[in-house]
Write a structure and sequence with these properties.
- This protein is α/β, with parallel strands linked by helices.
- The chain has eleven helices and 13 strands.
- The protein has a seven-stranded parallel β-sheet, sandwiched between helices.
- Strand 5, helix 5 and strand 6 form a beta-alpha-beta unit.
């Protein structure tokens, strides 16, 4: 029987979950338990083939989440807005979060690694708040009230969106690329995280620093990063600079387009989130990469690294149109 500490990862097959599972598993120091609604799906099967334990759990059923959390030292918790298609969620992100925290407490989990976003609040532009951000942020207070050690990890904008949404497409009969996005001005600084490469390694560094702290005989609740918000980002740049970088590294002319909102594509709440990025900024006073993680030994990738490895193979001048 393994004596390695267990980390349970909610939505282990998602963008965040896959990165966290990979980092902990590849370290060789942790047993990883990926929670998913569909253990027979291709993403879950790929995790299982790597030797990661895959557990079926409905994230709206506390007994299933509790069962999946049993014996875990740490849990990585993620919530999904009920309006996001493909997941079938019926309860709010706040209620999802409370359920996960209650399950973690009942399972005697020592450390909650909570995926959050900045609090927007109802007064911002008198827009009534932004559920995508606010419900996640409000769970932070609930975690504190339960007396469980936790770090509130706030991922920056996923760089992967560039090819997952996708935000790049051929135009003019394959003579140039259109790089488009929503709402945010071309010259507005935005932090990005290459989730696949940099999110999981950051979470791993935090968890192991808490372990080291506890091994010295101190309570995890006394850790200096306990109950703090820790943004995770690989670099800060502008959408306009990304377009120029793609053009430089692919060798293909890039036309940059901004769409004013996303309501017709997805949901008004996402428009609010992007307007918040444009007006307020996403952690405008924080440095990226974050010194906290750099000091923990995390090596972050650059925008050039990302474009060369992920965009050029798809849209470089030598790719087939």
């Amino acid at each position: 029987m393994s004596t390695k500490p267990v980390i349970a990862v909610v939505t282990g097959t998602g963008t965040q979950g896959r990165s966290v599972c990979a980092a902990f598993h590849q370290s060789g120091r942790w047993a990883v338990r990926a929670l998913t609604r569909d253990p027979a799906g291709p993403a879950a099967r790929k995790l299982a083939e790597q030797g990661i334990e895959v557990v079926k759990a409905d994230f709206e059923k506390k007994d299933e989440v509790l069962n999946a959390f049993e014996g875990a030292y740490a849990v990585y918790c993620v919530t999904i807005p009920p309006w996001q298609t493909g997941y079938g969620n019926t309860i709010s992100e706040y209620d999802q979060g409370v359920l996960q925290v209650d399950a973690a407490k009942a399972a005697n989990v020592k450390l909650i690694l909570w995926s959050t976003l900045p609090y927007v609040g109802p007064d911002f532009l008198n827009a009534g708040g932004c559920e995508l951000h606010d419900h996640k942020a409000q769970v932070e207070g609930y975690i504190k009230s339960q007396g469980i050690a936790s770090v509130f990890i706030s991922p920056a904008v996923f760089a992967e969106n560039m090819y997952v949404w996708p935000m790049l497409r051929w135009i003019d009969d394959g003579k140039k690329l259109e790089f488009w996005h929503y709402a945010v001005d071309a010259d507005k600084p935005v932090p990005f995280v290459w989730a696949e490469r940099d999110l999981g390694s950051s979470v791993l560094a935090l968890a192991e620093d808490f372990q080291k702290f506890e091994s010295s005989g101190r309570s995890l609740l006394e850790h200096p990063l306990n109950h703090t918000i820790q943004p995770v980002g690989s670099w800060r740049t502008t959408w306009g600079n990304i377009a120029r970088t793609i053009e430089r590294l692919t060798g293909v002319p890039v036309q940059h387009t901004i769409h004013p909102n996303v309501d017709e594509r997805w949901h008004p709440d996402l428009t609010k989130a992007l307007v918040y990025q444009n007006v307020h900024g996403f952690y405008p006073s924080h440095a990226f990469p974050p010194p906290v993680f750099v000091n923990l030994g995390v090596s972050f990738n650059t925008l050039d690294d990302f474009v060369v490895q992920k965009i050029v193979p798809l849209f470089g001048k030598d790719t087939q149109r």
